[in-house]
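Lay summary. Proteins are chains of building blocks that fold into shapes, and those shapes determine what they do. In this project we predict the shape from the chain. Here is one chain we studied, written as its sequence of building blocks.
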Amino acid sequence: MSGGHSHGGGHAGGAHRWRLQVAFGLVAVYFVVELVAGLMSGSLALLSDAGHMAADVVALGAALVATSIASRPDTTGRRTFGSYRAEVFASGLAVLLMIGVSIYIVVEAIGRMGEGAEVASGTMLVVGGVGLVVNLIALFLLRGGAGESLNVKGAYLEVAADTLGSVGVIVAGVMVAQTGNALWDTGIALAIALFVAVRAVFLGREVLAVLGQHAPSGVVPDEVEGALASVPGVSDVHDLHVWTLTSGMNVATAHLMTEESADAHAVLDAARDVMRSRFGVEHATLQVEPNTHTGCKEVTW
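And here is the predicted shape, written in a compact code that computers can read:
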């Protein structure tokens, strides 16, 4: 039996941790400001965007936690996969928060219909403008690491969505100021709520795919099996499993049956290179067995 383990070097997210920290601080402070302003002004658009910002605070915090946990040694000896999935659980919390915010805004919007709610358009314009500046600064910071780290890329996309929300708040403020009709605030709030709900559904699907140990996006198990079977010296491949541990960390296991004349070390190295170069799997545990070995039987699942 042979085990092939390919361990990556330092995490790219760690090198850009300072970007996440600054962006997190900016977004968290602005979230508090926007929430208070939304409650004081009576603007649903501000409240809905504040809810969106709350989800992004969680997402940025999860990214920060993930970069910290990635380099933290396990002192219990029981976490054989480490604690990388803390990021996935935090993302799941963000999904629930986003859905809750969307439901709240829809209920409030329905309750306001037919009522002459007063909305402070000036507060909306000021807070929306500040939010746009904050989001643009955060985008500039995160853009530098988005191409190297999936954690940073995810945070970058979250802030990009926030930027659209700030633009929506500004538009709502302008329309309310010009028309005096609070329905503009309600309508744009509903649009933001719908946008947040759609994003929550897509993010939730990704979370469930990871927790359900589905094959990573873009990785087809049949193609992996075929690629391993084509390695010189391999006569059969079975017990193949490939899944995502957390975002950007794909892992796999497989049994490789080899011909009698095959060099097990060469087969192992070649198979490991295939997994890394073709499928982006840095950690592959590969068991190499001669085809004369009859003790290995596939498990029922």
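What the prediction tells us: Residues 12-211 form a domain with the Alpha-lytic protease prodomain-like fold (CATH 1.20.1510).
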